[in-house]
């Protein structure tokens, strides 16, 4: 999501034929569980400053993208909270992601288990879509339906580990319909 945003914003400074074609052909940018903000309170900047540079670049703003005919929609789940004091593995994973990214934890911190809501949205005029649960199952929406594996570092085509069917993500039936109408 944030990489596509930087590419469409031209942050690399390179004007290639592919970049020009993307500028002409792209009419919408939809990000799914993507961090768009790197707050000062963060304990860790997992993008090593890139996200902050993108967020501060006028050409990467939602207004600039919209002015060039690119409709921006940011989608994030509010389905998962985080806690250290639990036996629920998903809550432990969520808190270990939310705390370094936000620099805080609490009952009001929610997200998709990896990206907290507080970081998932660009400024207006981008559209904000918050999804709590799957319309079909009522289960919380998680960041992904697969786990990357160490061998993905050496071979990008290596298979990831599929999670059980009840791990609902942004692309699951009953969730896709909550944001797909914004594709143009």
Structural commentary:
- The chain is α/β, with parallel strands linked by helices and 184 residues long.
- 24% of the residues lie in helices and 14% in strands.
- It contains 5 helices and 7 strands.
- The strands form 3 sheets. The protein has a 3-stranded parallel beta sheet with strand order 1-2-5. A two-stranded antiparallel sheet has the order 3-4. Strands 6-7 form a two-stranded antiparallel sheet.
- The longest helix is centred in the middle third of the chain and has 14 residues, at 89-102.
- The model has no long low-confidence stretch (mean pLDDT 89).
Q: What letter string, H or E per element, gives the SSE order? A: HHEHHEEHEEEE
- Largest sheet features: 3 strands, parallel
End-to-end CA span = 17 Å
Enumerate the strands of the largest sheet in spatial order, edge to edge or round the barrel: 1-2-5
Beta-sheet strand percentage? 5-15%
- Our Rg estimate from Cα atoms comes to 17 Å
Total E-strand runs? 7
Q: Quaternary arrangement of the chains shown?
A: single chain
**Helix content, binned percent:** 10-25%
Q: SS-based structural class? A: alpha/beta
- Average residue-wise pLDDT: 89
